[in-house]
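forwarding from the other thread:

> can someone predict this with zinc ion?

sure thing
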Amino acid sequence: MYLDINEPVKFNEYTGKCPVCGGLMVYVDYVYRIPYYESVLITTGKCSSCGYKYRDVRLTDQKEPRRIIYRVEKPGDERALVIRSSGSILLIPELGLSIEPGPFSQGFITTVEGLIMDFAEKTRFLCEEDKEKKAECDIVMEKLAKARDGLISYTVIIEDKTGLSDIVSGKTIYEKLQPATG
Ligand SMILES: [Zn+2]
């Protein structure tokens, strides 16, 4: 689901502690240039002991805390690039879907279409785990299939207190968000 229009350029490597097992994590930073846009920083990490993988993506120029709103309403809209940093909340209200920040939250860069495909994959996986929720799952899967085929309009919202996320499109709307407290 990750795009590689241009090759990300590696520029930094460092180590840290694995949040899962305390082992040695090796982090690598890459700069990724998006055509007609600013650069994005991609950090990947891998634990040498347990294999835990970490990924985060953020803008190189931090913005004000903001709500990023993008409406998908016609063919082609699904091709907009979504840069979601690990500390932000991502919502698709019409589909009842969200991604919350947390200790194991990962950042990603993908298209809106890639996001829908990823939600479909995760929902399918969760549904197989929990048979009791089948009816509920079927409804979500049906909505995701319609979203994928461009049969319904929906909104992708990122609530970004860190100012490190964006949706790359001329029709993205930004609202001011109160900065994080504490
Ligand atoms: Zn580990």
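The mean pLDDT is 91. thats all i got for now
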